[in-house]
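Problem 12. The chain below contains 304 residues. Write out its predicted structure in token notation.
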Amino acid sequence: MIDIVLCHSILEKCKSVDAFSENAAHVELVRRIRQHRMVISEELLDFYEAYFEEKGPEWLEWYQTLCIAIFNIRERTVIVTPSSDRCYLKEQAYQNALAAAALSHETKDKIILMEPKRKISNAKNLGISVFNIEDIMDTSGNNLFSMYTLPVNGKSVPEGSESKWIADWLGRFINEEHYIQIFDNYLLTKEGIKYLKKFILKYMANDADIEIYSLKDPAYPEQQIKKELSENHNIKQKFSVYYVKNKKDLHARSIQGSKYIIQIDRGLSVFGRDGKTFQSVISIFENNGTPRIILKESQLTRII
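Solution.
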């Protein structure tokens, strides 16, 4: 979930959309937007109300109902109080209100959704990302909004990207999990455990349960694995670590939690070397109630 500021032209598209709507594309648009928190301010609320009042009584009534149904729910909105003495966009009061909300210290992200994609002057210099409907509907994760909106179908990670940036991206999903299973052929190696500690465990909840399934590396003894994991800075995290006896029994490289399934074709080696990624493809889906993957005892050797 990310924090987003909606232009009223996007907000109005949420009117009268439900699962029975004949416009499937419109339903999907609203579904993707609703995955996130809406950022509002008193100034923005005034602009919204004036906009919908001008559109007519039916629209104003819908907007006022929306205020009651959504704007007062913490999980759906974040109410910000931008600095009153800051003017980001002179002579553009409404766009300045959008920018001020996006730049508020009370939000995690600096994202504005607009349609049509009118250029907000100085947005790039302010660090604001502006997206339109085409960007919102991108399922491949090719922009910041779509990277955090599910499903992400085959996000290509190029060779030489910043490993930390990829870790921070995945970390926003991992941080919501209290239980994960990690499947990776080569995780129980010196390099694999380094990736695990540096790029995964630091984002996990303090009381998280972590199950690891990997092949055995003859060059990396069990005692060393136990030592490495016991030295993890967060001793409250609980580990269950298994060797999978036969490679064909090991599931595709992935991180599966109760909320999300993250598929990484190269496994944790995507984080590469010297802070730069190896080329890989990542997909992220909602779990949708999929139960934990349980392997047979005959397929496993537990070491922790």
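Discussion. The chain has eleven helices and 13 strands. Students who got a different answer should revisit the alignment rule from Section 12.3.
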